[in-house]
């Protein structure tokens, strides 16, 4: 599996931060409704769960499993079965749990890309990756915490706009690092 460069990760994350920040600043009422509805939303939960299971399946299929190598073909059946079991039996607050799982998964390639980069600015992406890990653990183990975080953002439209503007600034910094430093 080919690794993605630190610059590419920074451009992706910076762009995502800028776009979501603009959305928060331009349409705070819409963002507030979306954040409040997200924990119990089925479609995002199913999409995020499917993405996480697909990613984990790819990791297992590409990993060296030693004496368990012969079990790899079972992954093709275990993935869809796991998906069905999760969406039907673990549907309570599945969207924040699946988001947490993806945050945990995305931290690894970012850390791998940052590990040997010569610039000390790589530590910015390292800190972001570890923040993803902490948020991922929190959302997976206590998905109700997503509501608490969302409540901080959704307290008022003014707060949502302000946090959106701060997100745009942070995203532009990360984007600059991806385009000019890394």
- Rough shape? flat
Which spans have pLDDT < 50 for at least 5 consecutive residues?
none
What does the largest sheet look like?
Answer: none
Rg estimate, integer Å: 18 Å
Range of helix content: over 70%
The overall pLDDT, averaged over residues, is: 95
Distance between the termini: 21 Å
| Count of DSSP-assigned helices | 8
Give the total of beta strands: 0
Compressed to H and E, one letter per element, the order equals HHHHHHHH
- Strand content is under 5%
What structural class should be given to the helix and strand makeup?
A: mainly alpha
Sum up the structure in keywords.
mainly alpha; single chain; 182 residues
Briefly, what is this?
This protein has helices at residues 6-26, 28-37, 42-62, 75-89, 94-115, 122-141, 144-153, 157-181.
Task: Characterize the structure shown.
This protein has 182 residues and is an all-alpha fold. The chain has a domain of 125 residues. The chain contains eight helices and no strands. The longest helix has 25 residues. The protein is flat, with a radius of gyration of 18 Å. The two termini are 21 Å apart. 25% of the residues are buried. The mean pLDDT is 95.
Reconstruct the topology from this structure:
Layout: H1 6-26, H2 28-37, H3 42-62, H4 75-89, H5 94-115, H6 122-141, H7 144-153, H8 157-181
